Amino acid sequence: METQIYSIQTVEEALACIEAGADRIGLLVGPHDGPFPCAIDEETAKDIFTAIGDKAVKVLISVLDNEEEIIGQVKRLKPDVLHLCANYEGNPAFREKLRKEAPDVLLMEAVGVTGPEAIEVAREKAEFADMLILDTVSATVPGVGAAGITHDWDISRQIVEAVDIPVILAGGLGPDNVEEAIKHVRPFGVDSLTRTSVVEGGKIIRKDIDLVRQFCERARNAVK
Length: 224
Prior knowledge:
It is built from 8 helices and 10 strands. By secondary structure, it is α/β, with parallel strands linked by helices. The protein has a single domain (2-221), classed as Alpha-Beta Barrel (TIM Barrel).
């Protein structure tokens, strides 16, 4: 069971999460005072990815809004996975362009699990994406994700069964519910942001490494 931890803000935090058991480390690159939590600049992201090396899968969450800028960012930062979830949705033509410009980078498309209609959206995206991430749609954060609440796992299970590519389950997952989520949905991996973080005044400050460790351990226990 793959474990993915978002959104890392420092080299030290990234390495501590890997030590705690995280297989995949996600960085959101965007304006620090913008609408996305834990956003960092490209220079910081480059330092973190360099420090990670091959210790974990490096995931770039891009919130740019056009394909040229996104692909340029990918070429500069060299992630293993590009995650699109906000201001731009991929398509077959974008996937081909990404494959040509950055052939080793996988494309992960977000699917907002808002209702049964998400199943067809997932099928469509699975035609060109390398993997999917299923997440909750927030009323306060643009795009898909960072809501900190769960969604209908029955729909997520149907999506896992309907597509032939790996699916990561996100949305309000923490140490207390990750085992139940895995047993219900049977995804390729699980993701945690809000519920493995220290939150003060409604703002994510940093990762809680003990919670990250518990999350990773319980995720793996669920498939033993």
